What does this fold into?
Amino acid sequence: MTVDEKMTCDEASVLVHALIDGELDAGHAREVEVHLASCPGCAAQLRDYRIMRTALAAPALRHQAPAALRARIERALPAASAQVIPIAPSRRSLLKGMAMGSVLSGALAASLVLVVVRREEDQRILGDVVSAHLRSLQGDHLIDVQSTDQHTVKPWFNGRLDVAPPVVDLTAQGFTLIGGRLDYIDGRPVGAVVYKRRAHVINLFVAQATAGDERARIEQLQGFNIWRWRHTDLGFWAVSDINAEELQEFGDKLAAAISGSA
Amino acid sequence: MAAGGDDMDAERARRFRAAALPYIDDVYTLARYLLRSAADADDAVQECYLRAYRHFDGLRGEAVKPWLLAILRNVCRAEFARRAGAASNAGEVAEDALPLWQEPASSPEAALLRQRDSATVRVLVAALPEPFREAIVLRDIDDLSYREIADVVGAPIGTVMSRLARARGMLREAWLRAEAQPELEERSS
It folds into this structure.
């Protein structure tokens, strides 16, 4: 509909809902409002629909899942019966378990706490990695320096970070270097080297890491695969929506190139 | 660290729990309105979460709530099919058969809706035919955007908009009728 056409009540009767729901852009909202100002019938409907909308938003219109249902679902998920290492959702609950008479030795208990604490930090960092990946895909902030040339991308990080992220060209292996940017993980500036595999973006985050597992491994979080690796004093996190096998391949190639050149 | 299979499973389950369980009331609410039975809603929500867990790795950065609601909706459709056997669409209004919702010509401008208690509103919503009930529950009670509703029900946004307009038109009609016949609201709860 163009601006000079007059809106009919038929059109308004549909669009008035989008107006109430905040789904109209400013131009269309204005058109609906112009119609409403001159049409008492539609204006009356709007009034009613607003009353209905308020009534429907009342908490009493929602249903609360029964506690027994919640418990059934909990029981059906694996962790409730995991036997190997007790994966506690928090340090406090693990400690509580010990206080309640578990037979773990003091040393083992202490190391478990360390594992759990590190896990929490790990999880936070993985969460940050996924968030940063998602942010990079929105809008046009995927790359600060756009280049398929590793000798352009690598020096770009100089002076911007306290680490020098290795930038390797994996084009021959099927992963195209498209650029780099600065990002933030766990509140620290990190280097992000950006690759593409077909239409999929791979963000490789590089930051200083003096502790942590040296072995490379793949994790999943919120539907993304994350390949992580530590080499010398650098931590690497590659995140993408490509499948785990391809990301593993990316990681293998990257690790080989970096270890080889060091 | 001993990273056995159980360990990975437990970790995956922990992440799933953190991502999916916060929406259990939204999922349960939709199940109650779609199935109109507390017992069936219980089963459907449990089935929904088990399916969601199986497919959790396939989730690619989508919003979790609409994803869960879409799964729940599929579970409910299977339940409808089970209930009705072959004649599964008996309770649904054929959408094409009806014109876009039109206000009756005599609709008085002064017919301002009265506020109603939640129990009455709940009964009025539950009485709406599908797919209009579903549209209004997803929008007004589970608070999804049009885009998210379109994804959940697998229909274009335009369809979502006309369904919602029809749904609210029907609800308004029923609401006004309930005001004229106060005994209707006694039926509730």
